[in-house]
Write a structure and sequence with these properties.
By secondary structure, this protein is mainly α. It has seven helices and no strands. The longest helix has 27 residues, at 41-67.
Length: 161
C-alpha cells in the first residue's frame, strides 16, 4: 500500500466484511421470509433497514472518510497515515451496533420480528432478554466518533495533516 488512502479502502473493506458477518444474526436479508405464506411486512421492513444500515450507512461513512479534508494526510505515504487509516476504518463497526439498536431492542423488535422469530434469534445467540435501545445506539455513535477522533489526533500530532 503506497498511501493511507489505499490503506483506508483495504482496512475499511475488511472491517466492513466483519461487520456484515456480525449483523447476520438479525436476518436482515431473509428475503424468502417476505413471501413465505403470503406477503409478510416484518421481513420486508428488516430488508429495508438492512439495506439502509448495512449497505448505505457504511458507503456514506467511507465517502466521508475518503473525501473529508481532515484526512488529507492520508494521501501521504508515511507509516502514520497507514495507522490513521486503519484506526478510522474501525468506525464501520458502528454498523452492527446501529442494526442491533433499531432491530433487536425493547420497543423496536415488534416492527421487525414475530415473537417466534425473536425467540429463535435470541436463543441462537444465547441472549435471554432484549437490551435497551440507547445502550446500542450510543455504542454505535462511539464507534463512529472515537476511531475518527483518534485518527485525526494521530495525523495532526505527527505533522502529517
Amino acid at each position: 500500500m503506497d498511501t493511507g488512502t489505499a490503506a483506508l479502502i483495504v482496512f475499511f473493506g475488511l472491517f466492513w466484511a466483519a461487520a456484515i458477518g456480525a449483523c447476520g444474526r438479525y436476518r436482515a436479508f431473509d428475503t424468502a421470509a417476505i413471501f413465505r405464506g403470503g406477503f409478510n411486512g416484518r421481513p420486508a421492513l428488516r430488508l429495508a433497514f438492512g439495506l439502509l444500515l448495512i449497505n448505505a450507512w457504511p458507503t456514506f461513512l467511507l465517502y466521508v472518510l475518503y473525501a473529508c479534508h481532515t484526512f488529507a494526510g492520508l494521501r501521504s505515504s508515511s507509516e502514520w497515515s497507514l495507522v490513521a487509516a486503519a484506526t478510522a476504518s474501525l468506525s464501520v463497526f458502528s454498523t452492527s451496533r446501529f442494526v442491533h439498536a433499531f432491530m433487536a431492542t425493547r420497543g423496536w423488535w415488534k416492527y421487525f420480528y414475530t415473537e417466534d422469530e425473536l425467540t429463535s434469534v435470541l436463543k441462537a445467540y444465547g441472549y435471554e432478554a432484549l437490551d435497551g435501545f440507547w445502550l446500542h445506539f450510543l455504542g454505535g455513535l462511539g464507534y463512529v466518533a472515537i476511531p475518527i477522533a483518534v485518527a485525526i489526533l494521530l495525523l495532526r500530532n505527527v505533522g502529517v495533516a
